[in-house]
Write a structure and sequence with these properties.
This protein has 12 helices and 20 strands. It is of the alpha+beta class.
Length: 512
């Protein structure tokens, strides 16, 4: 994001911070460039939200981080590139004991010489300041703060950080609001601001509407930096709820069916709010070609996929063949990374869908493109499989019932059953399972039997739906499956999504 508008900063600021940031950045969960050397840091903007003095200061940075060649999540070698990161640096003469874990380091020269810099979001005094900026719309250097005037945001709400997120950072204020601070940013409105705002405009209540946000100027489009939304107090995480029902031997099909209806309502509202387009022959062929290319890279990264490669390619060939038969499907804006961990059942018993950022490892422009709604459906179907296989003993019938109920709930709302488009559904589910294998091989090798079981099923004849009892449930901590799967050591994929999950959001919850 070299075109960002920069703010005048002391020339010695970045040189004084450079060695500290080079050591600190790769250790952060949200840093996308792990495993690749940092070649240069370039300060795009520096804004004092609170000038440092006797008390804490808060400095907002947009920092371009250049890195040498490395690898992508799918296992391909990537060229040298530069990403832009948002940093909120606290500045104090010394750190109190409760902030020592947030320390970045002591600055020895430059305008901050003698001060300690640290992760500012961990400091309650600075987190409150950020909320005050959001409560008061206006500009500060290249930063612009805005809000929905119809929503009251009380002053003095106590902040607390959420732990475990991978690609972003979040703060909860007084159990009333949650602020997501995007870390890896670029020009263009982030879908996690754009889509909930559009959904609110057309009256969809399945998604919490943004109440405030802040952006930075750039030479092209504004850069979304953070979004404040209502915090759904008392809600249950969909992934944890499913695991609880499994452990208790309870049925989850009513919830799965209701979740299918919720997904359908969101898709319908998105199609109403934003343009749609048909997927013509060229589009379906390109979809299939992209999936085939990702499979080839994945086979290089995880050789155990090789015996299944021909069967997996058949799923993508079937999609391309339907495209050449003049069969078209609509494309529209979608969630982009839907799974049980992106859902909440509210205290009132309704399902809400959150985190519309998509897969953060993908370019922002790609995440904002219209796509077949089946992509979201395939992600949720894979999530039911993950949940079932995380339970001992493995219960394949539980996953099958949930998958069927979800599709039924979707069909009752839209009048279109995803199972009536088997080539499209199979192709997207296969593409997702291939991604999961590579991710697990890199980050959780003891979990790789879960997506490999899906690979075994999906590589079979078209129309095969039974989930084979091949490796049993997902392994418990410290328990390795009898067969281990290997990945080529030369490939070190960039951890994704948040996300999560693009990634699975593993630190926050097991990958759905």
């Amino acid at each position: 994001m070299s075109e960002a508008v920069s703010t005048a900063a002391p020339p010695a600021l970045l040189p004084s911070l450079d060695p500290l940031l080079r050591a600190w950045l790769p250790r952060q969960r949200w840093f996308a460039g792990k495993g690749r050397p940092l070649t240069h840091l370039n300060l795009l903007s520096a804004t004092e939200l609170l000038p440092p003095g006797a008390g804490p200061g808060l400095i907002h940075l947009l920092l371009q981080v250049g890195q040498g060649p490395g690898s992508t999540e799918a296992g391909s070698q990537s060229p040298a590139e530069a990403d832009c990161y948002q940093l909120l640096l606290g500045v104090r003469p010394t750190l109190p004991f409760d902030l020592e874990q947030a320390a970045i380091g002591k600055v020895n020269e430059g305008p901050l010489a003698g001060h300690v810099v640290y992760e500012g979001l961990r400091d309650p005094r600075l987190a409150v300041l950020l909320l005050e900026r959001l409560r008061t719309p206006g500009r500060l250097g290249p930063l612009r703060f805005d809000r929905d005037p119809a929503t009251q945001i009380p002053a003095g709400l106590a902040p607390r950080p959420l732990s475990g997120e991978q690609s972003n950072s979040s703060l909860v204020y007084g159990d009333s609001f949650i602020l997501k601070v995007f870390r890896r940013v670029g020009p263009g409105t982030n879908p996690d601001l754009e889509l909930p705002r559009e959904l609110a405009r057309v009256g969809c209540t399945r998604v919490p509407a943004p109440v405030a946000w802040y952006e930075a100027d750039s030479a092209t489009e504004p850069v979304t930096l953070g979004v404040l939304q209502p915090y759904l107090r008392g809600s249950a995480d969909g992934w944890q709820l499913a695991l609880h029902r499994l452990a208790a031997g309870q049925d989850f099909t009513p919830e799965a069916r209701a979740l299918g209806r919720a997904t359908a309502e969101v898709h319908t509202a998105l199609a109403e709010a934003l343009p749609t387009l048909p997927l013509h022959r060229s589009h379906t062929e390109q979809l299939a070609a992209d999936m085939t290319a990702r499979l080839a890279l994945a086979v290089r990264a995880v050789p155990d996929l090789q015996p299944y490669a021909a069967g997996l390619r058949a799923a993508f060939d079937a999609l391309a063949a339907r495209g050449t038969a003049a069969c078209t499907w609509p494309a529209q804006r979608v969630h982009g990374d839907l799974h049980l961990g992106q859902t909440l059942r509210t205290a009132g018993g309704q399902w809400a869908i959150i985190d519309f950022e998509g897969e953060p490892a993908r370019p922002l422009a790609e995440r904002r493109l219209p796509q077949p709604p089946v992509r979201d459906i395939a992600g949720m179907l894979r999530s039911f499989d993950y949940a079932a296989r995380s339970h001992d003993p493995w219960d394949p019938a539980w996953a099958d019932r949930c998958r069927a109920a979800y599709c039924e709930g979707y069909a009752r709302t839209t009048g279109r059953d995803p199972r009536e488009e088997p080539e499209l559904l199979r192709a997207f589910e296969t593409d997702k399972a291939v991604y999961e294998v590579v991710y697990e091989a890199r980050h959780r090798p003891d979990w790789i039997p879960v997506p490999m079981a899906a690979i075994h099923r999906l590589a079979g004849p078209v129309g095969a739906t039974a989930l084979p009892r091949t490796t049993g449930p997902g392994p418990r901590p410290g328990h390795l499956p009898a067969k281990t799967f290997t990945a080529r050591p030369a490939v070190s994929p960039r951890p994704d999504s948040r996300t999560s999950p693009d990634r699975p959001d593993l630190p926050r919850r097991p990958l759905p």
